[in-house]
């Protein structure tokens, strides 16, 4: 019987490859272009330049004020405090309707994943009311709730509820049976199963529903305030746009529309992108 000789251990000291040049650093312009905020800023600058060129070519401030004129009107509105006050009124109403819509959507979808009656109820209600434009309910809201914030909150809840409920329920249906069984093995059922298993697993769909609901609610509020403000003599940002349109201050109308766009960009960039970065992207659920 032969034995395999033991190989003596030894260490080889590797020399650095000095003959191979190190990889060159990317140019500064290419490194800056990797930042998403810079690319978006370039797009906005191009849009502003095209806007200014089109306004100067047309030469009619009443139809299309230039970007510089709109910026001046926006600055005057901010300095005078008129625009911040209108924005504050709109955002307070928006948050009330948005939060109430989220609570109702969560309750409806929780009932849908728990019972057959809840599934039938969610399917029937979404088929009935989701195609119905929220602004079409404003006359009924004014009749039922009168000239007040409750009318606007009612149409905002309608605009948020169904989109968020459908996305949340679709996310719940996409949760694997393995995760559901793991939750049941830990004794989770009903609302506890929804909170600890379904919500984290369906978070990408829930965030998509929240973004869609926010967009629907924001544009519904501005449209509703155009009517509501004209009826009551007061209102938020939509009423600001409507009032200046009647007085033919087109630059202020564009300034109000610019505020609507800026708020949408800020909410998208600061709120929803931050939530996605801290949750679904960090957990590897979304690229």
Automatic annotation (TrEMBL):
Compartments reported by the entry: Cell membrane
TM segment ranges: 87-109, 121-145, 151-172, 193-216, 222-242, 254-275
Organism of derivation: Pseudomonas capeferrum
Identification of the protein by name: ABC transporter permease
Keyword tags: Cell membrane, Membrane, Transmembrane, Transmembrane helix, Transport
Signal peptide: none
Topology of this chain in the membrane: Multi-pass membrane protein
Annotated family: Belongs to the binding-protein-dependent transport system permease family.
Record InterPro entries: MetI-like (IPR000515), MetI-like_sf (IPR035906)
């Amino acid at each position: 019987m032969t034995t395999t000789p033991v190989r003596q251990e030894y260490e080889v000291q590797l020399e650095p490859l000095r003959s191979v040049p190190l990889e060159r650093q990317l140019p500064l312009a290419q490194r800056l272009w990797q930042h998403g905020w810079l690319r978006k800023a370039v797009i906005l600058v191009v849009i502003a330049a095209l806007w200014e060129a089109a306004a100067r070519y047309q030469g009619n401030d009443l139809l299309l004020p230039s970007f510089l004129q709109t910026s001046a009107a926006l600055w005057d509105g901010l300095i005078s405090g008129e625009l911040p006050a209108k924005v504050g009124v709109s955002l307070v109403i928006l948050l009330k309707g948005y939060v109430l819509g989220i609570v109702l959507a969560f309750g409806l979808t929780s009932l849908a994943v728990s019972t057959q009656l809840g599934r039938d109820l969610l399917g029937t209600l979404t088929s009935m009311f989701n195609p119905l434009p929220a602004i079409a309910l404003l006359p009924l809201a004014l009749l039922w709730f009168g000239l007040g914030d409750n009318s606007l909150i009612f149409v905002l809840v309608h605009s948020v509820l169904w989109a968020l409920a459908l996305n949340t329920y679709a996310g719940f249906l996409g949760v694997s049976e393995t995760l559901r069984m793991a939750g049941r093995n830990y004794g989770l059922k009903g609302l506890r199963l929804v909170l600890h298993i379904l919500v984290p697993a369906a978070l990408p769909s829930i965030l998509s529903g929240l973004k869609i609901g926010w967009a629907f609610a924001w544009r519904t509020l501005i449209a509703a305030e155009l009517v509501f403000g004209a009826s009551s003599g007061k209102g938020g940002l939509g009423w600001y746009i409507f009032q200046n349109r009647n007085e033919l201050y087109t630059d202020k109308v564009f300034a109000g529309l610019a505020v609507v766009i800026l708020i949408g960009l800020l909410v998208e960039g600061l709120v929803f992108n931050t939530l996605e970065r801290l949750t679904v992207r960090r957990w590897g659920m979304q690229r």
